[in-house]
């Protein structure tokens, strides 16, 4: 008797450090996983960058490996990866340049030229919903190529973001996707709901492939391949998809890691100059709908300050991992730090504190007060009914309790979901590969009372 093969979707989740391949069954359980890490290479200036050749070969090697697992039947493939990275393809589909790093320093004269030509930095940033972030505004990378290397720029047939390049490797077709276009790229005019005028002025619009919806699929280029292929998604937008599909009342997702990114899919109010200067911006969901967002460097600061506290009190940083909230300590530190922020705590002399618990509670109070300031930029109080926290801080008892205490009229939940980014990329094309209904238990929630 022939054993029935398990229907699965293959998802490539490409981060800056780890490149992962997952196979999910129809119940969104991981049935296979592979992780790769590549050595970085350098571009022509000697700056570190992704090894695009290794990445391309890894996609094909990984697919060949899963094809050998005959217990699985691959129904579909999709991709999620970090944004702010362009691949420039020539007429034959080969990359013309290295995959430049979005942390690469950006020439100030070029930034000034672009901004000055289109109303100044404030107006340009408001129009494109993109704080001025240098190379992290991926559109500026293309502007730089056009200005500094016009001979290469003229050879560019298509400029595609990294998720769509990965899809192109399997389909042979090039597309643009709103989650990549709308992520602080400085390409999109959010008022006009179209590419910004500068894109047309350097004829970049002729090099950008057609925009298609993130839930569309296309056939694979391999002869006889029956599976469907998605066009790829920007990772932050992909991680939001499970929440959008499971919750329909207005909510905010705080995705915590090195950055704490607060996403409000139900707020499309235009950005103000003040909000831009405080690190608010727009993302896009896979249908092209704006998502108001704010960013806080809280995970990074947590790493720095716990290191400082641990060294001062001669303890291991693991002491902080399972520390539970002590409300008496919170009441005590509030007397001095009730309105202090992360920036303020950097200047605090740790000699003020009796022990590491005292210091850590003061630090977390400052962190939450900064988080509340960041959230206030996008919240629209009275409209939001739930706040979900995923990532590292969802497991921090002090963070979660203080956040809940700050929002007594909103339900606050710690949310956990294995591989949210990859699951989002699978869910967005669910109807094209999965015969089951979307499970209601993908997200595990833990409620925190005010």
Automatic annotation (TrEMBL):
Superkingdom of source: Bacteria
Protein name in the entry: Sugar (Pentulose or hexulose) kinase
Matches recorded under SUPFAM superfamilies: Actin-like ATPase domain
Gene3D superfamilies membership: 3.30.420.40
Protein family (similarity comment): Belongs to the FGGY kinase family.
Keywords (A to Z) from UniProt: Kinase, Transferase
Domain (Carbohydrate kinase FGGY N-terminal): residue spans on this chain: 9-230
GO molecular function: glycerol kinase activity
The Carbohydrate kinase FGGY C-terminal domain, residue ranges: 249-431
Source organism of the structure: Sphingobacterium lactis
GO cellular component: cytosol
GO biological process, alphabetically ordered: glycerol metabolic process
